[in-house]
Amino acid sequence: MQKQYSTTFREFITRDDNGRYHVRLGPQVFSTDYQFKDVRIEGENGGTSVSPDTLQAKPWIMRNLRHEVGFQHKKAVAIMFGDPCFRRERYSANQRIAYKNALSNGR
């Protein structure tokens, strides 16, 4: 019988000032940048780089990292674009008429 765990396997921890995402996968904490160029296992003494052979042998690491980092990035972008500075108000009817008149008069 398998042991029932009370915590999830994949958990987002934080995004640091350098833009690295820290994700817990099982008992290990991985950190990576958004483009997955540098994947590290974080420990008490700092991070150790994960070799490409390990990533090929264990494809679940990259699959879970991509899923969690992509989800957190989409969430951050949605919050950013929800800001009032990114909202565009629709042009009024008079503004649209003036624009179309300017186009037809300019030809």
TrEMBL record:
<protein>
    <submittedName>
        <fullName>Uncharacterized protein</fullName>
    </submittedName>
</protein>
